[in-house]
Design brief:
The protein has 188 residues and is mostly beta strands. The chain has one domain: Immunoglobulin-like. Helices cover 3% and strands 39% of the residues. The protein is built from one helix and twelve strands. The strands form three sheets. A six-stranded antiparallel sheet has the order 1-2-3-4-5-10.
Length: 188
């Protein structure tokens, strides 16, 4: 096995990565992913991270670092006072959650739910819901939080998804990422 290093800017960890404009220069951070299968075993098929497999992110501009991972995915089965269909004027949509965990290992990092998206085999991408209700699954992942070295933040981010389809992967991306980190969503 080998360790693959990838240039990665952590939108989860930097507030400007949530789509807000900033006068600060854009910089890339580095990340190291856990070992992946040898590329020669399936050269045309991309390999994705498994739930619980963390990426280590170093942000040199802030002299900070963190580990981040996806812990799980659940689709449907939530009883909420407002359905995904009611909220977004759709038919056949349900709420789904992605459980995320970020631990600061150096300095202070900022977290955000907006660099996370669900990717489907047909190319569809779904962003997290901008709404939140008191009856959404707990704990909720924060919209914006500061996490100091030695502390972690963990919670569920809610997505409105088509009830008859399942995403292929959970993608951690931002405008600054040259290569997104991707976790495979198991079939049920």
């Amino acid at each position: 096995m080998r360790t693959q290093s990838t240039a990665i800017a952590v939108g989860l960890l930097l507030l400007p990565l949530t789509g807000c404009s900033s006068d600060e220069p854009k910089t890339a951070a580095s990340a190291t992913t856990a070992p992946r299968a040898d590329a020669s075993s399936a050269p045309s098929a991309p390999k994705y991270l498994a739930f619980g497999q963390a990426i280590e992110v170093n942000i040199p501009t802030d002299n900070s670092a963190a580990k981040t991972t996806v812990l799980g995915y659940q689709q449907g089965g939530y009883t909420t006072r407002t359905s995904a269909d009611q909220e977004f004027n759709t038919k056949g949509y349900v709420w789904a959650t992605v459980e995320i965990k970020v631990c600061a290992t150096k300095g202070t990092v900022r977290t955000s739910r907006y660099p996370w998206v669900l990717a489907y085999a047909d190319g569809t991408r779904i962003e997290p819901s901008g709404v939140t209700y008191g009856d959404f699954p707990k704990p909720e992942y924060p919209y914006d939080a500061k996490v100091k070295a030695g502390d972690c933040v963990r919670g569920k981010t809610v997505f409105p998804v088509p009830g008859n389809q399942r995403p292929e992967r959970i993608v951690y991306t931002t405008e600054l990422l040259p290569t997104p980190a991707e976790w495979a969503v198991p079939a049920k």
